[in-house]
Design goal:
The protein has 106 residues and is an alpha+beta fold. 32% of the residues lie in helices and 11% in strands. Strand 1 and strand 2 (51-56) form a beta hairpin.
Length: 106
């Protein structure tokens, strides 16, 4: 310790302190368990750093929505079991379709 320096200590009960030397390794181990969840054959998980994309396909919007809700329930349970929370304000949904919308002409 340097002369006149202040030492601050805290006990960590969950997670890992941000910018700690073991943070990235701990996150990779934890995140890997999320990627190993058993998703339906209609869905696929893709991860980049601390972002997650879930791709889901269905014959209709309602079917895709139902599959996505199943996957989101699994992810929500995983987060709760690992004492993590997702920021709902930064989470997004995007619908992609090959169908052309029929515009109403006036």
């Amino acid at each position: 310790m340097f002369k006149n320096s202040i030492s601050i200590e805290r006990s960590v009960r969950k997670g890992c302190p941000q910018a700690s030397c073991c943070g990235p390794g701990y996150w990779n181990l934890l995140y890997n368990s999320l990627l190993k969840l058993e998703f339906t054959s209609h869905s696929k998980a893709i991860a980049f750093a601390d972002d997650l994309i879930i791709l889901t396909k269905g014959e209709s919007i309602v079917e895709a929505e139902n599959y996505m809700n199943l996957e989101l329930r699994k992810i929500s349970d995983w987060a709760q079991n690992n004492k993590l929370m997702f920021n709902e304000h930064t989470s997004k949904v995007m619908l992609l379709s090959r169908r052309k919308r029929k515009e109403k002409r006036m």
